[in-house]
């Protein structure tokens, strides 16, 4: 009962993930607000639908890959949304891979737990929801090497593994509803701060006369080594094949990082957790967006240290 898969949200990530499901032999039905992208899929012979509700009517499983919480709420509970059909649903599983706040994931999960299946599917009588955001970005989405962080029923997680492994190389079960979303925003918070730490240290080093390439070599065999220094170095010319070597084009947009930091800050406030570095990082990435770099890769935060200085 994984054969008919609905896919909603065919943007940078979703279009590539849907393509990998098609390649793996799933019968995929798609929807997006953007008619151009729908036409593309239609020309490839893929079934397209005008609304999320029509996708749900055609699918056993529905995957969503949308920009933010508001879009996810709209696709689930809006007019002609996935739940438009009343308390009876065809899909036995809903997987949301968008990066959204854990509270929204939990709300959707509790809404759907009040529904029942039109037809009993295997052992299941009620539909399941998994929050399953990804790490890896557009290149990993294309190559089918994403990692899924999954919250919700463990039984549903095991049943959904063939889908995860058609789009990715890993799937980690994180616990109950919302825990996948929580894991994702915590990962991106740590990444945002580590990128800032590496950028600030390399900018200071350069100002003190040590070349960024020399300092990076030292970091990479010392205790400052991290992904931001050895895999995704933010200083142009230190590494090849990373966004900093192509004027920060491609990669993970600053505006998405700012969005994820907003989610982390909101979640921290909700649970009363101290978050001084989240607040500082949120402020810096937001400024970066306001300065017009919202579409550039987030490692362009390195440049922030030179704004207003003679370069
Ligand atoms: P995107 O903006 O390229 O794509 C989103 C798609 O959703 C668009 O095609 C849009 O038309 C569609 N959409 C919006 N509202 C809709 C609605 N109501 N009904 C149907 N379709 C609708 O975004 P993306 O880069 O693919 O990212 C998707 C999610 O994945 C985001 O939450 C993002 O934070 C997360 N993410 C992105 C990356 C990345 O590198 N781009 C990496 C990891 C996670």
From TrEMBL:
It catalyses: 3-hydroxy-2-methylpropanoate + NAD(+) = 2-methyl-3-oxopropanoate + NADH + H(+). Its EC number is 1.1.1.31. It holds the Pfam family NAD_binding_11. Signal peptide: none annotated. It comes from the Eukaryota. Pathway: Amino-acid degradation; L-valine degradation. Residues 4-175 form the 6-phosphogluconate dehydrogenase NADP-binding domain. Keywords: Branched-chain amino acid catabolism, NAD, Oxidoreductase. Residues 178-304 form the 3-hydroxyisobutyrate dehydrogenase-like NAD-binding domain. SUPFAM superfamilies: 6-phosphogluconate dehydrogenase C-terminal domain-like (SSF48179), NAD(P)-binding Rossmann-fold domains (SSF51735). This is 3-hydroxyisobutyrate dehydrogenase. It comes from Stylosanthes scabra.
């Amino acid at each position: 009962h994984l054969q008919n898969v609905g896919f909603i949200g065919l943007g940078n990530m979703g279009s590539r993930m849907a393509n990998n499901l098609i390649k793996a032999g799933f019968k995929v039905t798609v929807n997006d607000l953007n008619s151009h992208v729908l036409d593309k899929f239609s020309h490839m012979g893929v079934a397209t639908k005008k609304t999320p509700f029509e996708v749900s009517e055609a699918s056993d499983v529905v995957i969503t890959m949308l920009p933010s919480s508001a879009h996810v709420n709209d696709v689930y509970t809006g007019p002609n949304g996935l739940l438009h059909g009343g308390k009876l649903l065809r899909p036995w599983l809903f997987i949301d891979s968008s990066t959204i706040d854990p509270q929204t994931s939990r709300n959707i999960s509790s809404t759907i737990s009040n529904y029942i299946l039109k037809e009993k599917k295997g052992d299941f009588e009620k539909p399941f929801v998994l929050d399953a955001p990804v790490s890896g970005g557009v290149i990993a989405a294309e190559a089918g090497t994403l990692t899924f962080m999954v919250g919700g029923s463990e039984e549903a997680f095991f049943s959904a593994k063939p889908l995860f492994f058609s789009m990715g190389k890993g799937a980690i079960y994180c616990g109950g509803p919302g825990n996948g979303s929580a894991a994702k925003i915590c990962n991106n918070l740590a990444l945002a701060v580590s990128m800032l730490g590496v950028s600030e240290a390399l900018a200071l080093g350069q100002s003190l006369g040590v070349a960024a390439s020399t300092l990076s070599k030292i970091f990479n065999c010392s205790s400052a080594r991290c992904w931001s220094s050895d895999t995704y170095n933010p200083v142009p010319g230190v590494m090849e094949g990373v966004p900093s070597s192509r004027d920060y084009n491609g990669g993970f947009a600053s505006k998405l990082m700012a969005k994820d930091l907003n989610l982390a800050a909101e979640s921290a406030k909700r649970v009363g957790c101290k978050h001084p570095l989240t607040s500082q990082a949120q402020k810096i990435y937001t400024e970066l967006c306001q300065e017009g770099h919202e579409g550039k890769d987030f490692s362009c935060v390195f440049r922030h240290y030179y704004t207003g200085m003679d370069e």
